[in-house]
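1st attempt posting a full record on here, be nice pls
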Amino acid sequence: MDPVTARLTFRAGNRIPEIWHPETGRIEPAPVFSVKDGLVTVSLHFDPAEAMFVVFQKSAEGVDPIKTFARDGENLLAPGSAQTASLTQSDRKLIVNTSAPGHYKATTASGKTLEAHVKALPDSKVLPGPWVLRFPPKWGAPEQVTLDKLISWTEHPDGGVKHFSGTATYTIEFEWDGTSALLDFGKVKEIAEVRLNGKDLGILWKPPFRVDASSALRSGLNKLEVKVTNLWPNRLIGDAGLPEDQRVTWTTYQPYHPNDPLLESGLLGPVRLVPVARVAFPEAK
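the predicted structure (as tokens):
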């Protein structure tokens, strides 16, 4: 699956499109749209497997929506363009959210121009390890292992780790300068629940496995905890090769065999902190 930037048209009359995000409950007006002959056309970016509701409640009378949006001359609204930035609105101000420095320019439907410059950001930081990985009791795995680098559980030499199915917890401590940043987890098999410095940052269940960590990051030492849940087959495959009295699981139907291939599992990474900037456009010219 690939990300998609699309222009969608709705027979909604002269109304403002609102974007309702089902994963977080966040509701925001779409800054980029146009109204003509009772049709509302809105530009939306979808990450892989992403879905959203488009709701029309408020009149667009007197609203001056964004018509074009570019960075250093590159049209960021064109289908297939790299999604290096997004637009949001806060307190009636238009905000550019980005990890890419450059000169940003937007024009409104009435022809007004908004410009903002984003300075160079710090480099991304990879969290290579070591990671402490803890397992729940009585599921065949040791209480905890230490990983010098992130690997699939199926690559670990311990048979209990190799065949573990369930939820295991990764922890790591790292230093940061307090800059606003996204946490990008790279590849996850299958679901991750993220907690940073004790703050719950939500559950990630589809790519890109990424969350805004700015509200929880602090200068100095930070502690990251990631609970990862994989699929069921690995434990059933492991049990298929054990005597019945040593098996962890019991099922009325066993479709797996001891030599069946195992499914990649766990936090595979790389895990990166990606600095982001949020810059408000000044008043339109």
